[in-house]
Design goal:
Blueprint: E1 3-12, E2 15-24, E3 29-34, H1 40-53, E4 57-67, E5 73-75, H2 77-94, H3 102-106, E6 112-114, H4 115-118, H5 120-169, H6 171-189, H7 196-209, H8 213-232, H9 237-257, H10 266-286
Parallel strand pairs: 3-4
Antiparallel strand pairs: 1-2, 2-4, 5-6
C-alpha cells in the first residue's frame, strides 16, 4: 500500500536530520536506502527494524542531514598538522625551500571531517529513536488506503456471490440444453439406428459429469473464506491472492462446461465472464494488501 511519512530530529546544536519513508505497492518487501556516506551500520539496523514491521511494498528510506552554519564540516587538525610537520621536516633535512600547498592538503582523504562522521553514534541513536514514530505515521496512511481497498473487495465478493446464485437458477436449463444437444449429436452419428434407452443412459451420465453444481459450491466456499480473512485482518494479502486464483480456476471450469450451449444456458457464459472480470479486478487490488 502507498504512503509517506517524515520525522525530524536533533543530534546536537550543529546537526539535525529528516527521516522519510515512502511506500508504494509491491508484491514483496523491497527496501531502498538513500543515506549519507559512512552510515552503513545505521542502514543495517534500519533494514532489520523495517523487515520486522513491514511485509510488502517498495519502500524508500531517505535520511537528510541539516547543518547549522559551518558545522557541516570540520578540519581534521591532527591529520593536517602531521602532514605539514612532515613536509617541513623533509624540507629541512634535504635543504629544499617551500611550504605545503593548502589546496593539496585539504584534498587528502580524511583532512576534512563531516559533522555526521564525528557524531556517528549520536546520529544513529537519534535516528533510531524516531523510526517508530515515522513508521506509525506511514502505517496510518497505509491503513486508510487499506480500508478503501477492503470496501471494494467486499463489494466484488458480493457480485461474485450474486453471480453464483444466478447460475444456480439456470442450472436446470443447462442440463436440459446439454442433454438435447447430446441426443441430437448421437442420433446424427448413428444415423437413427440406436437403442433409445442406451442413449438416454449415456446422456444422463455425460450431463451429470457436466453439472456445474460442484464448481458453484466451491466458488461460494472460497468467497466466504475470502470475507472471513478480511474480517480476521493482519497479513492476509498472499492468502487472498491464492483464493482468487482458486476462484479463477472454478470460473474457467464453469465456462468450459457450458461452452457452446445456446438459449437460456447462454446466460451462464455471460455470468462466467462477469465473474472472471470481478476476480481479475480483485487480484489487482489484493496485490496492494499486506
Amino acid at each position: 500500500m502507498t504512503g509517506y511519512a517524515q520525522a525530524r530530529g536533533q543530534v546536537n546544536t550543529g546537526l539535525s536530520f529528516a527521516l522519510g519513508l515512502k511506500s508504494v505497492n509491491h508484491r514483496f518487501l523491497d527496501l531502498h536506502f538513500r543515506l549519507p556516506s559512512d552510515t552503513d551500520a545505521l542502514e543495517m539496523k534500519l533494514r532489520r527494524m523495517l523487515k520486522e514491521k513491514m511485509a510488502r511494498g517498495h519502500v524508500e528510506v531517505t535520511l537528510t542531514l541539516e547543518y547549522a552554519g559551518s558545522a557541516g564540516v570540520a578540519l581534521n587538525r591532527q591529520l593536517v598538522g602531521s602532514y605539514v610537520q612532515a613536509f617541513r621536516t623533509a624540507a629541512d633535512e634535504f635543504g629544499v625551500n617551500g611550504e605545503p600547498d593548502l589546496n593539496v592538503v585539504l584534498r587528502m582523504p580524511g583532512a576534512m571531517e563531516s559533522a555526521a562522521g564525528k557524531s556517528g553514534d549520536e546520529l544513529e541513536t537519534a535516528v533510531l529513536a524516531r523510526v517508530e514514530d515515522v513508521l506509525t505515521r506511514l502505517n496510518q496512511m497505509r491503513e486508510e488506503e487499506g480500508r478503501g481497498i477492503e470496501t471494494e473487495l467486499r463489494e466484488r465478493m458480493s457480485h461474485l456471490a450474486a453471480a453464483g446464485k444466478n447460475m444456480e437458477g439456470h442450472r436446470a436449463a443447462i442440463q436440459r440444453s446439454y442433454a438435447d444437444r447430446l441426443q441430437t449429436r448421437l442420433q446424427e452419428l448413428l444415423n437413427g439406428h440406436i437403442d433409445k434407452e442406451r442413449v438416454l443412459q449415456e446422456t444422463a451420465l455425460l450431463v451429470d459429469r457436466s453439472d456445474i453444481q460442484e464448481e458453484l459450491v466451491r466458488l461460494s466456499t472460497h468467497v466466504k473464506h475470502f470475507l472471513g480473512l478480511l474480517d480476521q485482518g493482519g497479513e492476509v494479502g498472499k492468502k487472498l491472492d491464492f483464493l482468487l486464483q482458486e476462484m479463477n480456476r472454478e470460473a474457467n471450469t464453469l465456462l468450459s462446461k457450458t461452452s457452446g450451449l445456446a438459449g437460456e444456458a447462454l446466460k451462464i457464459t455471460e455470468m462466467g465472464l462477469l465473474m472472471k472480470a470481478e476476480i481479475e479486478k480483485s487480484r489487482e487490488q489484493v496485490q496492494n494488501l499486506e
